[in-house]
Design goal:
The structure holds two protein chains of two kinds. By secondary structure, chain A is of the alpha/beta class. Chain A has helices spanning 25-35, 55-68, 81-89, and strands at 2-8, 11-20, 42-46, 50-53, 74-77, 97-98. In chain A, strands 1, 2, 3, 4, 5 and 6 form a six-stranded mixed sheet that branches. In chain A, helix 3 links the parallel strand 5 (74-77) and strand 6 (97-98). Chain B has helices spanning 20-33, 38-59, 108-116, and strands at residues 9-14, 63-70, 74-81, 119-125, 129-137. Chain B has a five-stranded antiparallel sheet with strand order 1-2-3-5-4, covered by helices on one side. In chain B, a hairpin with a 3-residue loop joins strand 4 (119-125) and strand 5. The radius of gyration of chain B is 15 Å and the shape is globular. The chains are: A alpha/beta, B alpha+beta. At the A-B interface, strand 4, helix 2 and helix 3 of A face helix 2 and helix 3 of B.
Chain lengths: 99, 140
C-alpha cells in the first residue's frame, strides 16, 4: 500500500494505492495520526486505486468517523464497485459518505 | 455447490501477520493463472485476509496451510491450522445498523466472508485441526 495525504484547509485528503487490509490499515492509521490536529473537520478518501478493503480498513474508517461524532464527515470518492459492495454489505454506507 | 476441483496447490507457513502478503501472493498468482477476473481476485483476497487475521489474532496456531484449486466453474480454498478449535461459520451476527456512536466493529470480518462466498464450511480433523473449506463460483 502507498498513501498520499494532503491538507486542504480543514479537510484531509487521503489517496490510497493498493489494498487496505490487516497489514496495511495500521500503517495508514499511523500516517493519518501524524497529520492529525483538532482543526480537521472532515476526511476524504480517494479510492480510485484501492484494490480491496477488509474489516481492518473499515475499523479505521469507523474510528475516524467517531472522532467527528457525526456521520458522513468521512467521505469516499472514486470507489470501485467491488469495494463499494463491502460498504453496502456492512451498513457502512449509513455512516460514510460514498460519493 | 458441487466441485470437482482436484488440482489443489498448497502453501504452509508460520502464523504471523507478515506472512499474509505471501499467502495473498500465492492465492493471487493461482487465480491469475486461471484468468479469474480482477474483481473476484479482490473478493478472495478479502476472504483470505479476514480468515488469516483471525488465525493470527485468536488461534495460537503455529502454522497455517492454504490450499487453492480452480476449475472452469469453481474456486476452492482450504485452510488448515491447529491451536484453538473454533467454528468460524458460527460467529454471531455483527452490528450493521446502529447509529455511529453505538456502532461496533467486532465480527464484521467473518460476516463479510459469509456474505461474499457461495459456500463456507468448517470441520475439525484428527481432533486437533481446524479445517475451513470455501467454494466460490467462477464469474464469467
Amino acid at each position: 500500500m502507498k498513501v498520499q495525504i494532503k491538507r486542504n484547509q480543514s479537510e484531509l485528503e487521503v489517496t490510497v494505492f493498493g489494498s487496505l487490509n490487516t497489514e496495511t490499515a495500521p500503517i495508514l492509521e499511523e500516517e493519518i495520526r501524524q497529520k492529525w490536529d483538532e482543526e480537521i473537520k472532515s476526511v476524504v478518501f480517494d479510492f480510485q486505486d484501492l484494490d480491496y478493503i477488509s474489516s481492518a480498513g473499515l475499523r479505521l474508517l469507523l474510528l475516524l468517523s467517531k472522532k467527528f461524532a457525526e456521520p458522513k464527515k468521512v467521505a469516499i470518492i472514486n470507489i470501485k464497485p467491488e469495494v463499494k459492495e463491502v460498504f453496502l454489505m456492512t451498513g457502512f454506507d449509513a455512516i460514510i459518505d460514498i460519493k | 455447490m458441487m466441485s470437482n476441483c482436484d488440482n489443489f496447490e498448497y502453501l504452509t507457513l508460520g502464523v504471523c501477520l507478515d506472512n499474509l502478503t505471501l499467502f495473498s501472493k500465492f492465492l493471487q498468482d493461482i487465480l491469475m493463472k486461471h484468468q479469474i477476473k480482477v474483481k473476484q481476485i479482490s473478493q478472495m483476497n478479502v476472504v483470505l485476509d479476514e480468515l488469516y487475521s483471525n488465525v493470527v489474532n485468536y488461534s495460537s496456531a503455529e502454522t497455517f496451510t492454504l490450499g487453492v484449486a480452480v476449475d472452469h466453474v469453481t474456486i476452492a480454498l482450504i485452510m488448515k491450522y491447529q491451536g484453538l478449535l473454533f467454528d468460524v461459520t458460527k460467529s454471531p451476527e455483527p452490528d450493521t445498523t446502529s447509529p455511529l456512536a453505538e456502532r461496533k466493529i467486532g465480527g464484521l470480518g467473518l460476516f463479510i466472508v459469509k456474505n461474499t462466498v457461495d459456500e463456507f464450511h468448517y470441520c475439525v480433523e484428527n481432533n486437533d485441526t481446524n479445517v475451513i473449506t470455501i467454494y466460490q463460483k467462477v464469474e464469467k
